[in-house]
Amino acid sequence: MSGQRVDVKVVMLGKEYVGKTSLVERYVHDRFLVGPYQNTIGAAFVAKVMSVGDRTVTLGIWDTAGSERYEAMSRIYYRGAKAAIVCYDLTDSSSFERAKFWVKELRSLEEGCQIYLCGTKSDLLEEDRRRRRVDFHDVQDYADNIKAQLFETSSKTGQSVDELFQKVAEDYVSVAAFQVMTEDKGVDLGQKANPYFYSCCHH
Ligand SMILES: Nc1nc2c(ncn2[C@@H]2O[C@H](COP(=O)(O)OP(=O)(O)OP(=O)(O)O)[C@@H](O)[C@H]2O)c(=O)[nH]1
């Protein structure tokens, strides 16, 4: 992939063990690795070419380490990201608190970054509903407040994984089209807080 142009820098953020690497593995290689858990050290990069209508979009995905030991490093990786997939484990409420921490950071330091909240390991809830520790409606309200989109995924079964990354690419294409349109018309793009800017990528 060296030398390939990346259209969208995507950063994966979230507490350790929430399943960021597994999400990327499922999306890029369509597999779920079983075996002993191996924590990410630093960060890993992978590029994936995909289609949105008749366009080709290359996502450059940075999978960061969730351990707080690497927090300073994760900050380096989200700089300039157009999209952040902020993950939490649906069976671990503390991981949602950690997700809120990253959202706060992104909102204050990377205002141009579109946020996607991702509740992981939904297959565990299929097995036993009582394992849910993060309420869907509470997170949906929170997502609406911060103008983020919400997905609940399983890297084990593949549930909603393609949809999540497809949405990231589609939003990139529609925001890029919106920017071309407004630049043509001389609209000031400094107004990113304008709800219309978000409404074009928040459904
Ligand atoms: N049942 C189930 N287990 C999952 C799922 N996703 C991840 N896991 C498991 O959760 C553990 C942690 O997954 P990782 O993908 O390594 O987590 P991570 O967020 O990348 O962890 P760090 O690299 O430490 O930040 C592993 O044992 C995975 O097999 C899922 O969708 N369902």
Automatic annotation (TrEMBL):
Origin organism lineage: Eukaryota, Metazoa, Chordata, Craniata, Vertebrata
Gene that this polypeptide is encoded by: RAB24
Subunit structure: Interacts with ZFYVE20. Does not interact with the GDP dissociation inhibitors ARHGDIA and ARHGDIB.
Family as reported in the entry's similarity comment: Belongs to the small GTPase superfamily. Rab family.
Keywords (A to Z) from UniProt: Autophagy, Cytoplasm, Cytoplasmic vesicle, Cytoskeleton, GTP-binding, Hydrolase, Lipoprotein, Magnesium, Membrane, Metal-binding, Nucleotide-binding, Phosphoprotein, Prenylation, Protein transport, Transport
Cellular component terms (Gene Ontology): autophagosome membrane; cytoplasmic vesicle; cytosol; perinuclear region of cytoplasm; spindle
Catalytic activity: GTP + H2O = GDP + phosphate + H(+)
The species this protein was found in: Aotus nancymaae (Ma's night monkey)
Record EC number: 3.6.5.2
InterPro entries: P-loop_NTPase, Rab24, Small_GTP-bd, Small_GTPase
Localization, UniProt: Cytoplasm, Cytoskeleton, Spindle; Cytoplasm, Cytosol; Cytoplasm, Perinuclear region; Cytoplasmic vesicle, Autophagosome membrane
Protein name (record): Ras-related protein Rab-24
GO terms (BP aspect): attachment of spindle microtubules to kinetochore; autophagy; meiotic nuclear division; oocyte maturation; protein transport
Listed GO MF terms: G protein activity; GTP binding; metal ion binding
Membrane topology, as annotated: Lipid-anchor
EC supergroup of this enzyme: hydrolase
Cofactor: Mg(2+)
Function: The small GTPases Rab are key regulators of intracellular membrane trafficking, from the formation of transport vesicles to their fusion with membranes. Rabs cycle between an inactive GDP-bound form and an active GTP-bound form that is able to recruit to membranes different sets of downstream effectors directly responsible for vesicle formation, movement, tethering and fusion. RAB24 is an atypical RAB protein that presents low GTPase activity and thereby exists predominantly in the GTP-bound active state. RAB24 is required for the clearance of late autophagic vacuoles under basal conditions.
